[in-house]
Each structure stands twice: as C-alpha cells, then as structure tokens.
Write a structure and sequence with these properties.
One of its GO terms (cellular component) is chloroplast. With 536 residues, the protein is of the alpha+beta class. The protein has 20 helices and 15 strands. It has helices at 17-34, 44-47, 52-63, 82-91, 99-109, 118-128, 134-164, 174-191, 203-220, 231-234, 236-261, 265-272, 284-292, 298-311, 314-328, 331-344, 352-357, 359-371, 411-415, 480-497, and strands spanning 39-41, 66-71, 74-79, 96-97, 169-173, 377-382, 386-388, 399-401, 406-410, 435-438, 441-444, 498-502, 511-513, 517-519, 524-529. A six-stranded mixed beta sheet has the order 1-2-3-9-6-4, with helices on both faces. The termini are far apart. Bound molecules: protoporphyrin IX containing FE.
C-alpha cells in the first residue's frame, strides 16, 4: 500500500540532486523490509505554522497506527498504537536508544538518564531510581505545599494591591507563574536549592530559562547548525548558550561539593533508618551523596541533576497550565473540583492523606495528561533490526524494521485515539469515575486495577499502554509520582482560594511545542478571590 497524504495539493519541498540520491538510497535500504508499511509523504510546508504532533495525528487517522513518514531524505516510523508502544518501550526496550533526542540533549544533559546510551543508563538508573522511594515522596509533600503557598501569597498580595485601587481581579500569565513554582520545587526537591523564582529574578534563573529555550530551539530546528565547527563561538545565541550552561554547571558543582563536605554520620543514620521527617535536607542530592558515599563521580552527578532540573520543571508547569486552561472552559467542572476541595480540606492545609481523598482533582490532572501529554512524542532509534507486532486493531501483521530506524511514538495519538477512547478530544475527568472491579479490587473504568493494586493514579500497566503519560518499561519517568503529587497539590491549593477565568478566548491561546506543549504568548487569566468557600 502506498497511501498519499491528504495534503497532496500542498506544495512539496523542492528537492535537490543530493536529496534525490539520498531518497533512493533510503528506499533501497529500507524498501524491502518496510515496504508494506503505509507511507505518508509530508510536504515540509505541512509542518509550518502548527506543531508537528498535529500533523502526525491527521496522518494517523488517514494511514493507520503505524506508518512511515518521509520528508525528503529523512524517514521516520510513526507509532500510535498501545501494543506496538508496549513492545518498543517495554518488551524490547533495550534494543532502542534515544536517537535524535540524545543528539539534541547530550550537549545539555551530558550522559544524564534521558539521553544516556543503554550501558550508561543501566548503571545510572540503579543509582537514581531508589531515591524516589515512598518516604522521600512523603517528605516532598511539605516542599510542594510550602512552595505553592508562596505562590498563593504572591497572588493575594497582588489582589490586595488591586483592592486598594478598588479592583477585585488580577490578570496574570499563569503559565509563567507555574513555571516559577515548578522551578522552585525541583530546586528544593532535587538539590535543596531555593531558586525563589516565584518572587525574584536571578542570573541563575535566567541561565536556566536560557538553557531551556535553547533545548527547545534545537528540538524544533531541522538543521543541527550548532554542530558545525566554530558555531559555538561565532553564532551569538550559541555563545550565550555556552555561557548559560557553564553558569548552571558551576552552581551544580558548588552544590555537589557542599553536599559532600557536609555529609554527616547522624544524617546518614537517619537516612538509613528512613527517618525522613527528621531530616533537615531530604533532597535527592543528599540521598545520592549520603547513600552512595563521598566518592561518587561528580561529573555523573552533575549530569543527573541537570537532567532532572530540565525533565521535572517544564513538564509539571505544562500540566498545571493545561489543567487550568481546560477547567476555565468548563466552569461546572471547576465548581465540582472546588466543591471536592471544600469538603475534603475546607480551609486546611493539604496532606498526603487528603491527596487520597481528592479523587476528582487527581482525575483532572490525569485527564489533562491524557489530552496534553508532555512530551507529546517519544523518540527512539532501533539499535538492531526488529519486528513490530500487529497493532491492537489487528489490521496488520506487524512490520519488520531495520537497525537505525528512527521512530516517533506519538503518545498524543494514543491518548486521543478514537479506537481507544470515547469522545477522545473532550475533557471528561468523569470518564474515569465509572468504577470497575477486577479480582476484588476497585479501579477506574477501562483500566484493570488488579494489574497495579493501590495505585493512586491510572497508569500504563493497568491500561495496557492506552494511557502512558510517563512512558513505560525500563525507561519510564523516575519522577512520575513526584509529578502527580506536585500537580495535584498545586492545583488544589490554587482552586481552594481562587476563581479563574481565561482573559481571552480559548482560540487565542495558541499552542506551540518544543519538548513540551505550551502556549505561544502565555496563559493569561483573571483571578478573583473565591466568595463561595464552604468551610466545614
Ligand atoms: C523520563 C514525562 C516529571 C525525571 C520521562 C519520560 C516521560 C516523562 C514521558 C519517558 C521519556 C522516554 O521514554 O523517552 C514526565 C512528565 C512529568 C515528568 C509528564 C510531569 C508531569 C518528572 C520529574 C522528574 C523527572 C518531576 C524528576 C524529578 C525524569 C527522568 C527521566 C524521565 C530522569 C528519564 C528516565 C530514564 O530514562 O530512565 N518523563 N516527567 N520527570 N523523567 Fe519525567
């Protein structure tokens, strides 16, 4: 089958001789083995003016859940199926590395977990993953609530200032506010550093944003010009990037040195006894230095911290941004969420116990991650030839792929697949509220709770990869529970105190994407102090 994209009347990119030769070579090398895979031939113009994952969704509906996409000499396999995703992420995970993504991220994250090759990753994952244990997460609840409280206090002060002028509302870019909040949380949680970015600016904060900006630029720029010799000295934005990177790395080196120098036996004992609530510094860095000994390799540690700083910051900020965007368009769901908060918390502070009772808020976070997965695409490259299984619809018998195949696994497509979800594009946290009981365990509709008993949030195991916001298999996000709890707490604390409206129309909130899905010009909202709080 050789399907053609619906956009055949769109102008095709002009190809030169080199492109044609390269195309012939690509087809020759792969044609025999991937020959029967449906093919979407995109025009480069399809990609301008809208994020790539939108185009990949249209082609998914047209060509099916596994298709090949060729842009001039470049070819990718696009996967939008849970069974094929499970195969790549879990069953045959170690036959794939991060391919293009690693090439983009390595200059920033070095050999940190996300871009790391398989051998490096095996060693590091063993060191880092144990740091995210249940008691650490429990200790983090205080960090999440303290930092969120600081954000709410800032909003209250702004409202009080407005009140003195007779106004009752403030207008804010909530995306920027969430970004500051998430940065403060990741700084304290991962390396016990208070960026204080909710209330101030600093050269370090500017350097962090500069680096994130560059990571995003690189993930959307098709020619890796930064790899050209001298580019890092001659191109001004590359010079700035090198400066920002050095600034952050120097700060991380200082934090690591300090953690090593302040290593104390009493703290180590408390850590070993898992006496987390008594610890002054419960950060991941403390755990890694104390439990792994002072001889842990500094460069490795720095790459790990940098990776977590970037991986855990914009992702969570994006979840909060889109949760508010969706709730603001559904005032009845916003009220329902606030009613739950009033009945569970009243005016009290949130605790780990109350998170368990805030089911609707948790499902708002879950539904937001379904509609706006961060990142929307996972990237892989096959290290050896492989056979992809047939998809869940049974419309093909699977495809052979050669070594070196670049794959886009579209989580966005899986999460909005009309073959998996009713009304896939609608915001319906209620869809999970219909209960299902399996082997005596109660869970959410469409998910098998017996596969993941006790889970507070739906996951890829119980949904058999139909819902995979944190990936799956051995390279699944290490910070998933951290992020779920952080988002639930921040959202609950915001809705506990404020009513929120979008400032403009939903359509005016333009979507752009780099590593995460975010807005073009911010999420501008009007905030009012809630009048209808029903205290217990
Ligand atoms: C990996 C999503 C928060 C650290 C991943 C992956 C996804 C993801 C989808 C898998 C990438 C792949 O397979 O290619 C998210 C989302 C977050 C979030 C949606 C917030 C809502 C965090 C936080 C941390 C973190 C808070 C750390 C504190 C990591 C690391 C990896 C990772 C280290 C690499 C794991 C490995 O390869 O072994 N994340 N993440 N993430 N995430 Fe997260």
């Amino acid at each position: 089958i050789r399907c053609h994209s619906a956009k055949t009347n769109a102008p095709k990119p002009k190809m030169n001789l080199l492109d044609n030769a390269s195309n012939l070579l690509t087809n020759f090398l792969s044609g025999g083995r991937m020959g029967s895979m449906p093919m979407a031939e995109g025009a480069v113009s399809d990609l301008f003016g809208r994020p790539l994952f939108f185009a990949l969704y249209d082609w998914f509906l047209e060509h099916g859940s596994v298709y090949k996409l060729a842009f001039g000499p470049k070819a990718f396999v696009v996967v939008s199926d849970p069974i094929v995703s499970r195969h790549i992420l879990r069953e045959n995970a170690l036959s794939y590395d991060k391919g293009v993504l690693a090439e983009i991220l390595e200059p920033i994250m070095g050999k940190g977990l996300i871009p790391a090759d398989i051998d490096t990753w095996k060693q590091r994952r063993r060191v880092i993953a144990p740091g995210f244990h249940a008691l650490y997460l429990e200790a983090m609840v205080k960090v999440f609530t303290d930092c969120s409280e600081r954000t709410m206090l800032k909003f209250e002060k702004l409202l009080a200032g407005e009140g003195r002028k007779g106004g009752k509302t403030i207008e804010l870019d909530l995306e920027a506010e969430f970004s500051s909040l998430a940065l403060d949380i990741i700084g304290l949680g991962v390396f016990n550093y208070d960026f204080g970015s909710v209330t101030k600016e600093s050269p370090l904060i500017k350097a962090v944003y500069g680096t994130l900006f560059e990571a995003e630029h690189r993930s959307t720029f098709y020619i890796p010009y930064w790899k050209f010799p001298l580019a890092k000295w001659l191109v001004p934005r590359q010079r700035k990037f090198q400066k920002d990177l050095k600034f952050i790395n120097d700060c991380l080196d200082d934090l690591i040195r300090n953690a090593k120098e302040t290593r104390q036996e009493t703290e180590i004992e408390q850590l070993q006894k898992r006496d987390y609530l008594k610890l002054k510094d419960a950060s991941l860095l403390r755990f890694l230095v104390d439990m792994r000994g002072a001889d842990v390799d500094d460069c490795q540690l720095r790459d790990d911290l940098m990776t977590m700083l970037i991986a855990g910051h914009e992702t969570t900020a994006a979840v909060l941004t889109w949760a508010v965007f969706l709730l603001a368009q559904h005032p009845s769901k916003m009220k329902k969420a606030q009613a739950e908060i009033d009945s569970v918390l009243g005016q009290r502070r949130i605790t780990i116990e109350s998170i368990k009772k805030l089911e609707y808020i948790r499902l708002v976070v879950v539904e937001t991650l379904r509609l706006y997965p961060q990142p929307p695409l996972l990237i892989r490259r096959s290290l050896k030839s492989d056979k992809l299984p047939g998809g869940h619809k049974g419309d093909n018998n699977g495809y052979a792929i050669p070594a070196g195949t670049d794959i886009f696994l579209s989580v966005y497509n899986v999460h909005r697949s009309p073959y998996l979800w009713d009304n896939p594009n609608d915001f319906e946290p209620e869809r999970f509220l219909v209960k299902r009981v399996s082997q005596g365990i109660e869970g959410w509709a469409g998910f098998d709770p017996s596969r993941s008993p006790g889970a507070l949030y739906p996951n890829e195991i119980m949904s058999d990869f139909a819902f995979l916001p944190f990936g799956g298999g051995p390279r699944k996000c290490v910070g998933d529970q951290f992020a779920f709890m952080e988002s639930t707490i921040a959202l609950a604390m915001l809705l506990q105190e404020f009513d929120i409206e979008l400032k403009g129309s939903p359509e005016s909130v333009e979507i752009v994407t780099g590593a995460t899905i975010h807005t073009k010009n911010g999420l501008w909202c009007r905030l009012m102090k809630r009048q209808d709080i029903q205290s217990l």
